Structures
1.
Amino acid sequence: MQNIINRFSWDDLKVVLAVGEHGNLSRASEALDMNHSTLFRRLGAIESVLGLSLFLRRRSQYVPTVPGAELISLAHRVEDDVNGVLRSITEEVRGFSGVIRITTSDALLYDYLVPLIATFTDKNPKISFVVSVGNESANLSEGQADIAFRATYNVPEHLSGRKVGSATWAVYGSRTKWTGKHAEMAQLGELEWSSFSHSLSKLKAFTWVEENIAPEKVRFRGNSILSVAAAVAGGIGVGLLPCMHGDEQENLVRISPVFAEIKEDLWFLAHPDVRKSAKVREFMNHCIQYLTDERENIFGIVP
């Protein structure tokens, strides 16, 4: 086996890939800028070294065998890795440039991402951003976005990322109605509420309201954190909101203790292939460092 490994090279893998992609020696030899007869001998020598037939010869068509298909798949992966490393090296030498696409919620954009992007673009003026706001989960595997910034307690297995903090929740009321007042837990069921629509049913806050507040007490439903916060600030009952948002709003006041059972972890997520991009890695590292340095101010806790 070691003898085979020593005699097999990346150039051999490129030969197998070219024949597999083009399906015959004529087109493969053109792609490789190699003489037809030379390519024929090279392929024969590779199969001899491996002791395997990599292609079935059918007239002018070369059809991969199972071992051939496995080597072609390996060649694609190696090619992708090499190209990814070369792009990263080029970006790091010439400076980061291009577009980073992010999907997030309105509240996370408002409370976190805007300052993160602003501080990053100050240092990287050739980077631009496209941000999609919504509460649905973007399919990072299909390239709908490079990065997802989400509050979640259930990270998909196919994604990689970093947890950067936790969002705690409490009940808020409008400052005009609730300044200097406090709502006891026993009172909450007697109050009118603003809450979330079923599109946000995955939120623990949605579940808590559904289980503890009578439906007729819910006078407003919104499909985003900002819409519910606006309703509460406008005097439409009280509502469960993330403290990171509610504490910063002039028209809101916290009227309950933090709910220990309602907490969402904050994650920067990306598909493993996307994280090979130098600019994406650089931005995620910037965000993580910024949130770590500002943890006390942002999350209200000491690092």
2.
Amino acid sequence: MDNVNLIERQLRTPSGTVAYWVSREAGTDRPWLVFLPGLTADHRLFERQLEHFAGRANMLAWDPPSHGASRPFELSWTLDDLAGWLHEILEREGAHRPILVGQSMGGYVSQAYLRLYPDDVAGFASIDSCPLDFSYYQGWELFFLKHTKLMYLSIPWNTLKRLGSSGCATTDYGRALMATMMDDYGKREYCELAAHGYAALAGAIVPERTYHVPCPMLLICGEKDQAGSAKRYNRAWSQKTGVPLHWIEGAGHNANTDKPDAVNSLLEEFARSLYEPAFDGAPQAG
């Protein structure tokens, strides 16, 4: 990301310090794109998007608590906690009415944010994420999400890294990037983080909560996404909400790394529909 001028910032919380990166090159009238990576990934997951929009949008990307540079961080957070810290960061940086771009777990954080701060967001782009509303899920799925730690720990670390990288992406670039991010963890740290993330997700999916998306939404899913029942959930999400589902040909769970040009094009079109004017100049390489 040599051509992206990002400034690293920190938010200190009682549970640890959150690292995030911000760029304001485009000026205050440009769109704010907030990039939220999935579980065990960090801000590098969006390097092709950060390159594409460099100098043309105001951008913010974080390493979620307990991920990447946001360590050490106490593994006790909920999705509402993540949404609250994100809100504090966006308020601090003056990110007015941003577009939340959430991949997988980042999409869940976005929905938790929208439930708590429904008037703050201009749009929500979901990349290989799923709805949080309880009505989409079966009991056994939620039970399994709460009991994954022993399964992860039973798998040899080298095998787990191979499965993690190949299961998330279909391209050499996407797999190598995921493997690089996984290499930052030791096995137990990685397993505990993954297990806690799934348990936090299950804890947010409860009958007494509804997750209405009060802003325009963009649904993106890789045609070869192998993560759980992501494709089934996305079909149901699109059908229930009436929001078109954009399938990314040949892409896996990390569709934005496998087919960045296709995803970037959709994100740009989405931003143009929400902001006027949206962008100046030509896109950067990426």
3.
Amino acid sequence: MSGVNIQGLSIKFGANEVIKGLDLQVREGEFLVLLGPSGCGKSTLLHSIAGLIDVSGGSIHIGGQDMTDAEPSERGIGMVFQSYALYPTMTVEKNMSFGLRVAGTPKAEIERRVNKAAQMLQLTPLLGRKPAQLSGGQRQRVAIGRALVREAGVFLFDEPLSNLDAKLRAELRRELKLLHQTLGSTMIYVTHDQVEAMTLASRIVVMKGGVIQQIGTPAEVYETPANLFVAGFLGAPAINLVPVTVAADGVTVNGALSLQLAAGRAKAGQQLVLGIRPEHVRLQADGRWRATVELVEPMGNHQVVWMTSGGQGLSVVVHDGRRITAGETLAFDVDESLLSVFDAASELRLN
């Protein structure tokens, strides 16, 4: 088990600087998720840790050792890619043991490691099969097993579930979480899927344009987003963002919602954006505001209600099973204690 310490990391492809002076400390034994949209630099960062990309500046330490310029084979890492990259003519056992055999690992040790990984990943009955005889989920398990047999200090995952259907993603997500609990290894996982990030991570690193926007536990990042980008990127349905202007008495006004902010939180004339999670909008008969229902999405155990109030669109998550139809007018309120308030100019959170 090893930690990873990245300081002042810069990566350029020609004139394009993809990673910009990035600092990141990955603790021993944690499950760290790099989250962000396509092109934000998360996979580039992961590949630089693996030694697959040369860095332009800064340093990468793994297990206390400077690995900035080390070969991938010297870094003590195991990596799982988005594509399974299995050898089609080899059995599951041969695929999992290939790297160990090339490294000259004793036969008995190879057998021990393969059997241990196969048991963890429920692959024991499949060791004699070839990839063409396996489902997508089984193939990804083999790819994970191939990394596990290295018994590395750090495991790197580059969107390993993105090629699977929703049901398989949910199953393997759960298995990866259990695997981390069993091994206690340091794991760094890249995804653009917020559900994967929220369910797997000890901590989430949200990235945009090669720059870290926020680092925190899933609860911290979701409940207290550092800026408008983080607020809008996490959450399904997305957070309601309501532009407002602060009046002289501290009341924010936008024509739909007028709310009193705590003293000192904002100044008169300031342009703000209120972040209201859909689950914090309450449909109740004595609500302070009225809205017209535009659309209702049944989701099984809850409904997502899309409505407008004074020209402002709002989404609401409703769990009580009531029947709601498009066109009706509903009274609603919001839990002001759970509001996120952002400065419109800087897009930063106001504490």
4.
Amino acid sequence: MKLIPKIILIGCGPHAKRVYIPALELLVKSRKVELKLVVDLIENEENIKSFLKEKSIDCETIFCHGFISQSLPSSLTDKLNNFCKENNINGVIIATEPLSHRAYAEWALKIGLNILMDKPFSSRNNCVSDLIQAKGIKEDFDFIHDLYIKNLAKYNNIFIINTQRRFHPCFDFVLEKINEIKDLTNCPVTSIEASHCDGQWRLPSEIVTQHYHPYNSGYGKASHSGYHIFDMVYRLYSKSVVQEKCADEINIVSSFIQPLGFLKQFDEDDYKRLFGNSKYDSVKKWSDDELYTILNDYGEMDLSTIVTLKKDNVAIGNITINLLHNGFARRTWLNPGDDLYKGNGRVKHEHYSIQQGPFQNIQIHSYQSKDKHNAMSDIEDYWGGNNHFDVLIYRNPLVCENDSSMQKFSMQEILNIYKLNVKDKLVTESVKHNIVQDFVRYLNNELSKDDIDSKIDDHQLPVKIMSGAYQSHILRNRDENPIIKYSFF
């Protein structure tokens, strides 16, 4: 009789509740996997137990105190080790906040578990202001990657980073089009402009009090959804370049806007004019003068980063990355909603412009206009729809397939090309579910390592960009040379 893989989930916050738990529910029902344990912080015990009961999920729970060390507390390590040994655990999904990623990854690797871990690879307290902590993000990767390689011969386990755009069919389509021109012309990608906006309006006092996608731990947008974009620009370039033309060095320069800048953009008087004095006073916990002392060195809200690609010390391409929390949102209310993940007026805008010398420009436009993503009646891939994703392709007549130099493809048209049927849900969430399914299929020996993307080995450069962006910001604030240099490989 075939043994069913057994896994544990560490972290059961908004993202896990919306993505991991629904995906695992289906896999558990089909006898593909057993979810044996959920681990979270002790302050969330009542909420998570209630959630698991509501979902009729029968598994054990461990609740622990938060920790700030780079390794797990010994008491927690002992509990987890004993549980995994007694229950023959095969894998772990790590869905904690990023400050804990290194500690849980180290523990899991030492006992040979297969790992699916949320992005970013890691982050650090105060990495927006402390150069040692900013550098520590790359050091976390180096430490964990070395440990993974060291233990491969003993365990032969897999370590996947959940960057879902790598699994998104529309990004696969773009990569195919880029490679078509590379094969025809031998021209690599020469320029990338990337922009991502979360569309989150967080009121000044909430910047202090909220701990989901926080600023109050000294990190922000780059450590939240920003890592997805660092990863995607790397992928768009690296998957399209011939080896002899590939960059051997990157230079990174960045500029951050932190909450103090946000206060200067829209101050207390502006909020009162918009909502009324008494209404704003009812949610305001601190005045702007008080916030100016509290918010110093809080994490970044918006950032711009330029990555210069160099070969033999010659610049051969630029990647510009603009990442925003503070952008168009649909929030019109003063008290935050319960759902800070997909709710609370959050609207996503994402854009790429990819140049391939004189031969091709590909533009990706993904713009939502609604903040309600649950009640969907169709694919909603129109401009402003929940699944909006248009790809525009411009080609030089020398390499053009027809008389027109431009082609446009919608989300539905691309799904049709791949014979995929996704309705009534966000395609990004469908992709996230597929990642969990692939992880479980690997545990069931239905997929090989070669069949799975986004393994730890391929995340060194996105981590360098993220760490370098923080370092550059800190050095710029010190009026020192803000250029951070790393090898490409």
